[in-house]
Design a protein that fits this description.
By secondary structure, this protein is α+β, with helices and mostly antiparallel strands. 24% of the residues lie in helices and 27% in strands. The chain is globular.
């Protein structure tokens, strides 16, 4: 938010919960808190970009998968699928709430080397004859609750419903935090507009900027912004069936996207970038993505680029998995950070779990303790093999 932007001051000088960041995670935590009859506190959500033009949520591809190597990640995705498919029911059967479209045509992991044999190259070719599988040994495919969904509508209704339940959103920015004398609690946050707001709990939901927020409380966090590119293209000869979200061994992925197709990839050189750097590298499409998808699907030799953009992963450099829970010393500082690309699909379970931690002091629906911040201090990475 620039210096000349209008800053909205909050209505009160004290809140039970202050959430720093109002995109998918700030709104998920806010909604689950406000929706729980056991929570009677006040909630302030501070969002520096109230139009949400630069946040990761606005640039997401809204994918969902069940294929993870760790049981807890699978169970998190299972709840996400249940939540999306029953969205109106979870929002109290409000007739205004739409059904969320969920295109469940699966992920197809293509492997050049040895691995768990789920589909042979011949079986893949039989089901999807448009693939070139000459260099593929096996593939892993799941048609149950995998594909993509309408993440923008989920986010919009979480935010709208949270406000109707009493959550206050302000377009402003947290610029400092004050801790108590022994450093064990954040007593207040200071806003760019000058107000000092007392708080019972602080939730860091700052996406790629998470470390900037945590440093205000004297905490280092291994999260940085990494660019990820998305391309929308049309095919001169469309495929005769839906294209699963296909992960090529090169790291390029592609899928059906309505009447068009979507492809994405990281850059070959993948450093941290500036928080406001969304400049595209247009050579990636011509020199990397198009040649790879045309080699994998020869029918994509003749395609036309329709649109493209660059967004940011909130990239956890420690182990590329979520960082949750309370800080070990600053006890009222809570993390929902570092999702490294699978944040949107995990937001129902992680938002629900974080709300439980705030209300009850423990996780009740799913045990999310494997993602606690403490593992970073112990130098014990959460190992998940299925990271894209």
């Amino acid at each position: 938010m620039g210096q000349d932007s209008v800053l909205n001051p909050p209505q009160h000088s004290s809140y039970d919960v202050v959430i720093v960041g109002g995109a998918i995670y700030g709104s998920s935590v806010a909604w689950f808190l406000a929706d729980n009859p056991d929570f009677e506190g006040s909630i302030l959500v501070v969002e520096k970009d109230p139009m949400y033009t630069a946040c990761s949520t606005a640039h997401t591809n809204s994918c969902m998968r069940q294929q993870f190597s760790r049981e807890i990640n699978v169970r998190i995705s299972q709840f996400a699928a249940e939540f999306v498919k029953n969205f109106r029911a979870y929002l109290g059967n409000d007739p205004r709430v739409p059904d969320l479209p969920f295109q469940s045509y699966g992920y197809m992991y293509l492997a050049c080397g040895a691995g768990t044999k789920i589909m042979t190259a011949q079986e893949i070719k039989h089901d999807y004859p448009f693939y070139n599988v000459d260099d593929i040994v096996v593939g892993s495919h799941n048609l149950v609750d995998e594909g993509y969904f309408d993440g923008a509508t989920l986010f919009d209704w979480w935010r709208r419903s949270a406000r109707e339940k009493g959550v206050e959103y302000v377009g402003n920015e947290v610029i400092a935090m004050a801790r108590n004398s022994n450093g064990t609690r954040v007593e207040s946050v200071k806003l760019r507009s000058g107000e000092v707001i007392a708080c019972g709990t602080v939730v860091n939901a700052s996406g790629p900027r998470a470390v900037l927020t945590s440093r205000m409380a004297g905490i280092e966090l291994p999260v940085e912004p990494r660019k990820r590119y998305t391309f929308i293209f049309d095919a001169e000869q469309p495929l005769d069936r839906d294209l699963p979200l296909t992960i090529d061994p090169s790291g390029v992925h592609m899928r059906t996207d309505g009447t068009y197709y979507l492809a994405g990839c990281p850059p070959d050189d993948d450093p941290a970038v500036d928080y406001d750097d969304f400049e595209q590298d247009h050579s990636l499409w011509q020199e990397k993505v198009w040649p790879i998808i045309a080699a994998r699907i020869p029918q994509f030799e003749a395609i036309k680029l329709i649109n493209s953009w660059a967004g940011h992963y909130a990239y956890n450099t420690f182990d590329q998995n979520a960082i949750l829970g309370r800080h070990t010393t600053v006890e009222n500082f809570i993390f929902v950070n570092g999702f490294s690309g699978h944040g949107l699909q995990q937001s129902p379970a992680m938002g629900r779990g974080t709300s439980e931690l705030i209300i009850y002091g423990e996780y009740r629906s799913l045990d999310l303790t494997p993602f606690d911040f403490q593992r970073i201090e112990r130098d014990e990475p959460f190992n998940e093999k299925a990271i894209i």
